[in-house]
User: Which sequence fits this backbone?
């Protein structure tokens, strides 16, 4: 079995209204040392793949096909055998 | 300046309907090697803190006060100077 952790965040060029909203809420709570904050998605998935390369391929495909909006988001991932 | 990456996920005891929905969608797309998947939140924040311990304290406090639902979620974070 393989375990993948997938981190999905907004592309730099894309406005992140949610991040801006969180930042102003934090400033209202007097966390003025918060310079910037962005919110993304974080997936943890277990894969019954036959090999690490199969698991790697599955991770890339499920990101492309479902988990990541390619127009607005980028992603990084970690993959290990468990 | 300090950079923190915060990973928020459901507590194990909490049902994750979103993860279940994603898993069945992936199975309908024939990704049958996906054994399980959970979705959480991923924050990247830059902090103008005076010291690493101040930054660490800010991260813990903003998680407790705003970013994490303590009843249903747990979090981990990484903190480094940039």
Assistant:
């Amino acid at each position: 079995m393989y375990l993948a952790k997938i981190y999905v965040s907004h592309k730099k060029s894309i406005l992140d209204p949610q991040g801006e909203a969180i930042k102003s809420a934090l400033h209202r709570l007097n966390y003025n040392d918060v310079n910037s904050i962005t919110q993304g998605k974080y997936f943890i998935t277990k894969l019954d793949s036959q090999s690490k390369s199969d698991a790697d391929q599955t991770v890339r495909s499920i990101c492309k096909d479902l988990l990541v909006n390619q127009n607005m988001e980028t992603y990084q991932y970690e993959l290990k055998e468990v």
Notes: The radius of gyration of chain B is 16 Å. Chain B has one domain: 2-81. Chain B has a mean pLDDT of 95. The domain at 2-81 of chain B is CATH 3.30.1280.10 (Mth169; Chain: A ,).
